[in-house]
Amino acid sequence: MSADLHDLGVAELARKLRAKEVSATETAQHFVARSREHATLGAFLATNEEVTFAQARAADARIAAGDAAPLLGVPVAHKDIFVTRDFPSTAGSRMLEGYRSPFDATVVRKLAEAGMVTLGKLNCDEFAMGSSNENSAFGPVRNPWDPARVPGGSSGGSAAAVAARLAPAVTGTDTGGSIRQPASFCGITGIKPTYGRASRYGMVAFASSLDQAGPMARSAEDCAWLLSAMCGPDPDRDSTSLDLPAEDFTRALGGSLEGLRIGVPKEFFAEGVTADVRAAIDSALAQYEQLGAKRVEISLPRTELAIPVYYVIAPAEASSNLSRFDGVKFGHRAAKYADLLDMYKKTRAEGFGDEVKRRIMIGTYVLSHGYYDAYYLQAQKIRRLIADDFQAAFRQCDLIAGPVAPSVAWKLGGHGGDPLADYLADIFTLPGSLAGLPGMSLPVGFGEGGMPVGLQLIGNYFQEGRLLHAAHRFQQATDFHLRRPGGF
Ligand code: GLN
């Protein structure tokens, strides 16, 4: 029976664990063996069986004592951008190689308290900067649907692990699309909540006004279970965490979609969207109409501006956030240097990869005297207008739907190291991020090369329940989320 454990979703696995049909220890053993078997995917950066099995035994003890916590004993793995006490935390960077955090990120702590068993840490683009996981200092991740292709990024290890059934659910972070885009590329489901829903404490900071944690799993129902445990205020540790009580998002899953107004922005179907993606999105929208939803044509006129705006604001914040990696407080320090300034220079030259350096330079430039008004301030003004566009759209519809990305996953090396090609592919995820809105991706079909296509749903602030509900209804009527890559 345990051979099938990796086929179970979070909800089913939790039920079996509570019914004592399987123990948390057996479950952990099964997944540990599986991730060893598929190590060539490159999904995991760190594992520690001793820690995993100790957590599993603790979960078994809680189950035996009648503890009814819903996620008890269910395995999880974390994007290596969350700091953890029991595993190294690298953020995909040489700068933090071997770094051990003295504390757990709030999201990690919350899921551990809910009884989830940690399988390890997952590969990601360096400091979450990227769209293909090729910027990780520790090697790329392969897409389980085609090992010659990227899994997306920056939460590439997270998405690949779920698609390959190496974990029933994982965490990711999304600054400009890093949950939604890899979920789309790997044929799984992921949700980025409203900015401030989940605490950023212990998430290695990239762009603080955009960074947000969220779950990735096979189904919307599974995401709802994790999201319920991850969110909630953290006033002493993250001043931007929202003062909203924790919510049980699984309660939002019932009911019909009758009369739901789905806004389809015409700008999301512009030139550049490949025919296969367009076809999959069109048939998903037709499916929604069959489920009772109404399709409304809307406009998000500043969609294109989201790229330059994001690629000014995110690097600006990154250049400030990453100044802490100076070789003094933590992480890498150059072995040889002449004086303090030389130590800073050598440490940062050795520790950071090319993309991170590029962003630090862009960020420092747009914040510098004389350019601040021309670039940074302008970008902030347009950011506000982009958020206003969404509010105008939400007067006409209840949620917004469109592609997550203009194409399916590209080949490893396919963008030939051209950063602009990566940036342009972020066009549909960036607007929602800049506005701080919740967004998700759910698998709705297949395109070129048999690669998965994800539908993006964007909701108004605090409408995670509505998004999960819409995705869940779709998944009850279709089986794209249950398809699996060959060999897994
Ligand atoms: N691809 C985007 C970037 O490189 C988004 C990354 C993210 O959401 N962490 O910045």
Describe the structure.
This protein is an alpha/beta fold and 488 residues long. The protein has a domain at 2-255: Alpha-Beta Complex (Amidase signature (AS) enzymes), CATH 3.90.1300.10. It is 37% helix and 12% strand. The chain has 15 helices and 11 strands. It has helices at residues 10-18, 24-37, 49-64, 106-113, 156-163, 180-186, 220-230, 275-290, 306-321, 340-351, 354-367, 372-393, 419-424, 430-435, 464-477, and strands spanning 44-46, 75-79, 117-122, 169-174, 189-192, 212-217, 261-265, 294-298, 399-403, 439-446, 452-459. The chain has an 8-stranded mixed sheet. Helix 8 links the parallel strand 7 (261-265) and strand 8. Helix 5 (156-163) runs parallel beside helix 6 (180-186) and helix 9 (306-321) crosses helix 11. It is globular, with a radius of gyration of 21 Å. It starts with 9 loop residues before the first helix and ends in an 11-residue tail after the last helix. The mean pLDDT is 97. The structure holds glutamine (GLN). Glutamine binds at residues 128-131, 154, 174-178, 206, 314, 426. Residues 128-131, 154, 174-178, 206, 314, 426 line the site of glutamine.
How would you summarize the topology of this molecule?
Blueprint: H1 10-18, H2 24-37, E1 44-46, H3 49-64, E2 75-79, H4 106-113, E3 117-122, H5 156-163, E4 169-174, H6 180-186, E5 189-192, E6 212-217, H7 220-230, E7 261-265, H8 275-290, E8 294-298, H9 306-321, H10 340-351, H11 354-367, H12 372-393, E9 399-403, H13 419-424, H14 430-435, E10 439-446, E11 452-459, H15 464-477
Parallel strand pairs: 2-3, 7-8, 7-9
Antiparallel strand pairs: 1-3, 4-6, 5-6, 5-10, 9-11, 10-11
